[in-house]
Amino acid sequence: MMIARCELAADHPVRKSVQHRLDSLLALVEARLAQSDYLAGSEFAAADVMSVFSLTTMRRFLPVDLSPYPSMLAYLQRIGSRPAYGRAMARSDPDLVPLLD
């Protein structure tokens, strides 16, 4: 996020390096979610709680297109359909529409 705020040129080496790392990370998460419903296995766990902000709310500040990652999008739908997620979002910021797609 800090690099995005610097408004570096698209061909700047630092920006390219950060983008490459982000792309690699998203590919790893996608591969994991293609094999498992949740990050740590077949059940919702702390790993999911820790990661969901980066895949949802954080994208309001640093837009990332997740359309190339169908397993990740399905994962976000599973997370969003959890009653506890809905309650948490309603309590924390009732006007915020989660980015689940």
UniProtKB/TrEMBL annotation:
PANTHER family: GLUTATHIONE S-TRANSFERASE FAMILY PROTEIN, GLUTATHIONE S-TRANSFERASE-RELATED. It comes from Rhodanobacter glycinis. It comes from the Bacteria. Pfam families: GST_C (PF00043). The keyword Zinc-finger does not apply. This is Glutathione S-transferase. One of its GO terms (molecular function) is transferase activity. Keywords: Transferase. Signal peptide: none annotated. PROSITE patterns: GST_CTER (PS50405). Residues 1-96 form the GST C-terminal domain. InterPro entries: Glutathione-S-Trfase_C-like, Glutathione-S-Trfase_C_sf, GST_C.
